[in-house]
Design goal:
2 helices, mainly beta
Length: about 150
């Protein structure tokens, strides 16, 4: 799991987790320099249970990124709790939004999807697939019609 959060006041955070561990939770201020360039100014980020914290120095305080934000619909299903989600935007970055010196166990993706909408439980994922299919609204209607 990794995500970026951009608030309307110019603050944000970059979070990276894998398995049940959060490896980084980096706070930043962002500024859009143009329609395709942003500047992240990393802030002191306090430690958590699994994250040792981060204090930027002069070399790691600022990162400028080229980006592309495009309207792009993606529907996907989560694997842990089978739910369908729809995303409406895709953000493509030129480089990692995490500062140098933060230890991450895997290579980061540079594409993020945003504006998530919950579409409800998936009837096709998880160990109880047969039960979910049987209890889907369509199958409930079909069972009802067969009983008449």
């Amino acid at each position: 799991m990794h995500y970026l959060k951009f608030e309307s006041d110019g603050s944000g955070s970059a979070v990276y987790g894998y398995g049940q561990t959060i490896y980084a939770d980096i706070l930043f201020q962002y500024e859009l320099l143009s329609e395709s360039t942003m500047r992240l100014t990393f802030l002191d980020s306090p430690p958590t249970v699994t994250f040792p914290g981060f204090k930027p120095d002069n070399e790691t305080k600022i990162r400028c990124l080229d980006y592309e934000l495009i309207e792009h619909q993606l529907v996907t299903c989560t694997t842990i709790v089978p739910r369908n989600y729809q995303f409406k935007w895709k953000l493509i970055l030129s480089q990692s939004p995490f500062p140098d010196g933060v230890d991450l166990p895997r290579k980061l993706l540079l594409t993020y999807h945003g504006y998530r909408q919950d579409l409800g439980p998936s009837i096709y994922a998880g160990p109880n697939t047969a039960t979910r299919k049987w209890n889907s609204p369509l199958n409930r209607i079909l069972r009802y019609l067969r009983l008449k």
